[in-house]
């Protein structure tokens, strides 16, 4: 069973979605941080501007009006007070001196006036804003959902009369007002739209690639494959165009070879027939029989050679058959028969006549040299194996592969009655390999030879096309 993200399409979709999620997370974090900094800077600069204006008024106003100016300047957010000592012992400049610079600029830029600034985080559990009534504080906390991160700023400005204007304020960074339900629904919707768009675009890439792959596999097994449509990106269209050209060349090559073989067979049969006629006219019986036997052997070898060469050029169509019923029919058709131990029903796609010929050659070899044949089959998820076993002497290990070579015979007498032409196994392997399988030989431990015919389990072409989309 294929894994969900084993395909190119699945991996690319996963990569794009993961990259987008990481980018969105980083952007959200930066947005929240920048938002907090912007809010705090705005509130801090506002308080600094008010403090500078109040300091200017106190410097110019008579002492009797100073209390009134302080009362008018006070608010729940910012508190002003006059004192002989500064509330800030020493400026920390945690803000890099931005607040001090703003106050000094509003006061005319004089460098001789001392200005002290202190910024610090406020511990949790305090009122959200200084000097708020408890009822208003609770209401504020309820509105802000209790998620406050406050910074307190203390500002001390030296006045011209020697007193200090002490300013205290606190400002909070409002929590991110984004309900989780909205965030989750937005994420799911964006993910669905993104996956759907990526799936559509990647299908235009992977779909044609899968068609080329499966068409190449069918072409390698000798099936007729129609030219593939030129769809998808330019690179994929170029690959498809190259495959169509290769297929046309191979088809033309096979057709030319088939015509050559047909002409060769015709040209060879005519002189052999003439030689047979002339041999029959020889008066000496022993010589005549020897010539006729040699000519008949030549004719049989020519026919076998042509049949072997045509093994890959067969135009027989593929069919889906029940393997158990197929073998039972082969058992009934063969004169000598064979033992069949196959009861399972298994659907296999093959060329019925070609595979029948290959199995017949193998079984006849087992009957001729091994005293009979026993046929079984088993399968896994991708292949089916047909086993043909006999009880003969087996084959020497060094010659297990050599017997597949054309005209190789273990029996050296060259007699057609005992050794055949030496093309049976070659033809069988040629046919099976044209199906994408193979034929292998091995000696059994209990004696005899075991021939294993392996064929791929292929789905129907229309099922393959549906799986692409």
Walk me through what this model shows.
The protein is an alpha+beta fold and 469 residues long. The chain folds into three domains: 8-177, no CATH class; 212-315, Orthogonal Bundle (Helix Hairpins), CATH 1.10.287; 316-468, 2-Layer Sandwich (Heat Shock Protein 90). It is 52% helix and 15% strand. The protein is built from twelve helices and eleven strands. It has helices at 8-60, 66-73, 98-106, 134-143, 180-220, 234-280, 285-309, 323-333, 352-370, 416-419, 424-434, 461-468; strands at 78-83, 115-121, 149-158, 164-173, 319-322, 339-340, 347-350, 374-379, 383-389, 438-443, 449-456. The protein has a five-stranded mixed beta sheet. β10 and β11 (449-456) form a beta hairpin. α1 runs antiparallel to α2 and α1 (8-60) packs parallel to α3 (98-106). The longest helix has 53 residues, at 8-60. The two termini are 17 Å apart. Mean pLDDT is 77; it is low at 143-148.
Helix-strand blueprint:
Elements: H1 8-60, H2 66-73, E1 78-83, H3 98-106, E2 115-121, H4 134-143, E3 149-158, E4 164-173, H5 180-220, H6 234-280, H7 285-309, E5 319-322, H8 323-333, E6 339-340, E7 347-350, H9 352-370, E8 374-379, E9 383-389, H10 416-419, H11 424-434, E10 438-443, E11 449-456, H12 461-468
Parallel strand pairs: 6-8
Antiparallel strand pairs: 1-4, 2-3, 3-4, 5-7, 8-9, 9-11, 10-11
Helix pairs in contact: 1-2, 1-3, 1-5, 5-6, 6-7, 9-11
Quick description:
The chain is an alpha+beta fold. It has helices at about 10-60, 65-75, 100-105, 135-145, 180-220, 235-280, 285-310, 325-335, 350-370, 415-420, 425-435, 460-469; strands at about 80-85, 115-120, 150-160, 165-175, 320, 340, 345-350, 375-380, 385-390, 440-445, 450-455. Helix 1 runs parallel beside helix 3, helix 1 (about 10-60) packs antiparallel against helix 5 and helix 6 runs antiparallel to helix 7.
